[in-house]
Design a protein that fits this description.
It is a single chain. The chain is α+β, with helices and mostly antiparallel strands and about 190 residues long. The chain folds into 2 domains: about 1-60; about 65-190, Immunoglobulin-like. The chain is built from 2 helices and 11 strands. The protein has helices at about 1-60, 145-150, and strands at about 65-75, 80-85, 95, 105-110, 115, 120-125, 135, 140-145, 160-165, 175-180, 185-190. The strands form 3 sheets. Strands 6-8-2-1-11 form a 5-stranded antiparallel β-sheet. A 4-stranded antiparallel β-sheet has the order 5-4-9-10, with no helix packed on it. A two-stranded antiparallel sheet has the order 3-7.
Length: about 190
């Protein structure tokens, strides 16, 4: 009987040891699983933060139209376009020097027949420090001579055209206008 009791005591001790080992294994597995879940969560939140910052960077350089788009005509077609631009609230500076070969703003012309992805333009700072860099608080006037900038860009009466002002970074400024029914006036404010 004594032998049976000792054997029973030994088995109880082994069972307790086995239970402790299983419990420790569960704790280790749970710790590894929680580490994996936390790592995945941190990774996804980091990617979300990168996406938000990329979106902010894209909208930072945004310009906005200031005033109207003024067209000069020769009686039958539009020869020149002039419009003012400024930075949107919180926007980063924009290079408006058409002579630069890199990191410059590009203006595209689009109508029903013609697409020109790089119009020549001239920039005049109305309010600012005199350089070709549009900075917060400055106002620049962009002038496009359609005759020299794009020989095939002919805008006559009742035609819709679009100008896309594309800064090096940030969102585009899209200016879409329709020419009036008659071109008798030499200067027209395109609404």
């Amino acid at each position: 009987m004594k032998r049976t009791m000792e054997r029973f005591r030994q088995e109880a001790g082994i069972t307790g040891l086995e239970t402790a080992i299983v419990l420790i294994a569960f704790v280790v597995v749970a710790a590894v699983f929680s580490f994996v879940v936390l790592s995945a969560g941190l990774f996804s939140s980091e990617r979300g933060k990168e996406t938000v910052y990329a979106g902010l960077q894209k909208t930072r350089g945004s310009m906005e139209l200031t005033g109207g788009v003024i067209a000069t005509t020769n009686g039958t077609q539009i020869t020149n376009l002039t419009f003012g631009v400024t930075l949107a609230a919180g926007g980063d500076q924009v290079n408006l020097d058409n002579a630069d070969t890199t990191n410059r703003t590009v203006i595209s012309y689009i109508d029903a027949v013609v697409t020109d992805n790089d119009l020549a333009y001239a920039t005049t700072e109305v309010v600012g420090d005199g350089d070709k860099l549009l900075e917060p608080g400055e106002l620049a006037e962009i002038a496009i001579n359609l005759g020299t900038a794009c020989a095939t860009c002919i805008v006559t009466a009742n035609e819709t055209f679009t100008l896309e002002v594309k800064p090096p970074s940030g969102s585009y400024l899209v200016v879409q206008r329709t020419s009036p029914a008659t071109m008798t006036d030499s200067i027209i404010n395109l609404n």
